[in-house]
Amino acid sequence: MVYKWCVVPQCTNTSIKTPEKMFVSIPKNTKIRKKWLMLARRNPKDIAASTNAFMCEDHFNIEQDMANYRQYTMGFSQTIIASILGRFPLSPLTKLVSIVLIYN
């Protein structure tokens, strides 16, 4: 099993500490990856493009945000595909947001 850790600052979820959590792989596409990391308040330069980076389910509404959630839970897919970028607090005073990514 691959060790996974959530790249969102102050989130301490890992595949060892919280094995019941789902971890969504951050896309490898440079532009999309940069958007994800910036919204998560991470400097894209701090995480190498070759690194398999993940965000845990706490930053998504898994059932609504994943394109293949039903197939994944039924065992028809080994990977889960995010159709909507996760939810991140912009500040302690703002609500969580969701941004739709359009893949070309």
Automatic annotation (TrEMBL):
This is THAP-type domain-containing protein. Residues 1-81 form the THAP-type domain. PROSITE patterns: ZF_THAP. The keyword Repeat does not apply. Pfam families: THAP (PF05485). Keywords: DNA-binding, Metal-binding, Zinc, Zinc-finger. GO terms for molecular function: DNA binding; zinc ion binding. The lineage of its organism: Eukaryota, Metazoa, Ecdysozoa, Arthropoda, Hexapoda.
